Amino acid sequence: MTDPLEKATAKAPPTLGEGCLSRYDPDALSDENGTEFADAAELWRQLQDEADTSIDADAPKPA
What's the predicted TM-score (pTM) here? Predict the structure, then answer.
């Protein structure tokens, strides 16, 4: 790395598909890309529980 500005550049990972079907290639992603999120499943469960609770609270009460 001889160019001092080279370290300030970012490169997107390779993609698959085109247009609205374009997505990052999961096989090309690594921890260096920030793809590790061990608690993602737990966060999703918590968000779904909160959403279910708010839907129940907004439901009309039987007469």
Answer: 0.41
